[in-house]
Specification:
The protein is built from 9 helices and 14 strands. The protein has 285 residues and is an alpha/beta fold. The two termini are 18 Å apart.
Length: 285
């Protein structure tokens, strides 16, 4: 296993998370490819790029040309929101429609459900500060990658991005990641951008969420397009199982979406079908 950790030099939270990771010691400078610099520690490789990561397409292929084997990718990033609320989030990447913020149009990068879900559990467990939103976000923005990838972020504006306590928290999360590869993989359908129901399920049950398709991506879309998005989300998550946030929809829309899930050849589960999560996430120091 080799995990690629991505830092953008023009993203303050990204740089701060890198700083806290390097402070743990044991990192070795392994060179550069005239654009990105690389450091290694055990099975982890830290890739520092000069540009913004959301528009740096195929970072995995670039790292592999340098000689790094890439099994999965964690991107360290800021999170922006008009609310300005302090936040620690994790999310899969890709575009259900246009690619205004990097990546490819109508294309999802492979999700990393077990790793991303373990990250969320550790974010909630490790966060020492009150009033911080800790949750998944749904699938959005680039870059495109061919290896499983997710973002881990500090938000939500300039007043939060320089928070070194948050950077230390997420550095510890990244260092301790230990995914449960045996958990059921789920695609979340419904709800809003901050995926409250999917976050709650991930924190209570032995289930790993990959891509998430919120209501706003389905609004005004015909059945064919919704089925396309659900199938793409499942394929990029490596599952055929969907968790539908039923209470986020009016009954007629719930019946419509539920019918489309079935017509797409996908399965549905509810919370009652899932194994409760026992104990706390493990740590590896």
């Amino acid at each position: 296993m080799s995990r690629l950790l991505i830092c953008s030099e023009v993203d303050l939270p990204s740089v701060n998370m890198r700083s806290r990771l390097l402070a743990k010691g044991g990192w070795e400078d392994i060179g550069d490819d005239r654009e990105c610099a690389y450091m290694a520690k055990g099975d982890a490789v830290l890739m520092s790029m000069p540009d913004m990561h959301i528009r740096h397409e195929l970072p995995d292929e670039q790292a592999e040309r340098f000689g790094v084997r890439v099994d999965d990718i964690v991107v360290m990033s800021k999170h922006s929101a008009k609310s300005g609320m302090p936040a620690l989030t994790a999310h899969p990447i890709g575009n259900y429609h246009e690619n205004q913020y990097g990546g490819l149009a109508e294309t999802l990068a492979p999700a990393s459900p077990a790793l991303m879900t373990d990250a969320l559990r550790r974010i909630v467990r490790y966060n020492p500060e009150e009033g911080v939103q800790t949750c998944f976000e749904v699938t959005h923005h680039g870059p495109f990658a061919r290896k499983p990838i997710f973002y881990i972020e500090i938000g939500s504006d300039e007043s939060n991005w320089g928070n070194m306590t948050a950077a230390e928290t997420l550095a510890n999360v990244i260092a301790d990641l230990e995914p449960d590869d045996g958990a059921i993989r789920l695609v979340g359908v419904g709800g809003g951008h901050y995926a409250p129901r999917f976050s709650e399920v991930a924190l209570r049950y032995r289930a790993s969420f990959g891509h998430m398709l919120p209501n706003y991506q389905m609004e005004g879309r015909d059945d064919e397009d919704i089925v396309r998005m659900m199938r793409a989300a499942c394929e990029a998550t490596g599952t055929k199982t969907v968790y539908l946030h039923r209470k986020s929809m009016k009954k007629p829309e719930e019946r419509r979406i539920s019918g489309l899930i079935s017509s797409a050849g996908l399965e549905q589960v509810q919370s009652a079908d899932l194994e409760p999560l026992g104990g706390s996430p493990r740590t590896s120091l």
